[in-house]
Amino acid sequence: MADAVFLALSVITIGSAIAALEMRSLIYGSIALMGTLGGIAGFFLLLDSPFVAMFQLAVYVGSIAVLILFTVMLVKRELIFKKIEDKRRKFAGIALMLIFMVALGSVIMDSGIKSITTNEPAVDFRNIGADFLTYYWPALILMGLILAGSVTGALVLARREDIQNEQRTD
Amino acid sequence: MSNELIDFVLVSIALLGIGIYGLSVKRNAIRMLFAVEIIINAANLNLVAFGRFLPHSGGQTLALFSIAIAAAEVAVGLSLIIVAYRMYQNIDIADFRSLKG
Q: pTM of the predicted model, to two decimals?
């Protein structure tokens, strides 16, 4: 059975995920998204993987959520508060979500993973570091190249060509 | 450990459903990016949960790779949204019909 910490974390995570999509203001929505990402970090702590939890906090809550917040601030004010969706599509979306959850949930509940528990000790995070540097090193290098390339691409895309560079020469 | 694997998998399914709802209903580009983030986080939760219950270190390693790639994806996606906003003065994806030059 799940304990109280798990239940509180799941209420926070799922509730703020719904709030992130349904809040009227995009700014409050991105703050609610921060709540979801932090709740996932809490789940990682419950799963005895503190390294991944800290990585999640540093990358998602620390940088991605702040990046989204600044992008929202660049958008015109009336667009932040405007809701653009039609009612029929919304009901169809809710029906799709419920059908999806019930179908996948019943398949999972009937499968064998319902009875899986463990008493074994958690994986030591030193093993993860060793894995990164031994077995996964080509993937690590590739990931670094992809990160550098995508950040450079993002900078090139967002650059404005219509503004002249005003450099002082005196 | 008092929590079972099925609890984490059910939370992950709920987050995935919410993300699919957001992707199919919302027309605001930034909100669709929120939905994509929620789906990616559901996948990461599944990876770490199965890695904990096997137990095997591969789940956490893959989750770390996935988080790093998601950071790159968000950077590119947000700059695409900014470019589209500059071109159309709107973030409604129904306006992004003509993507030529």
A: 0.90
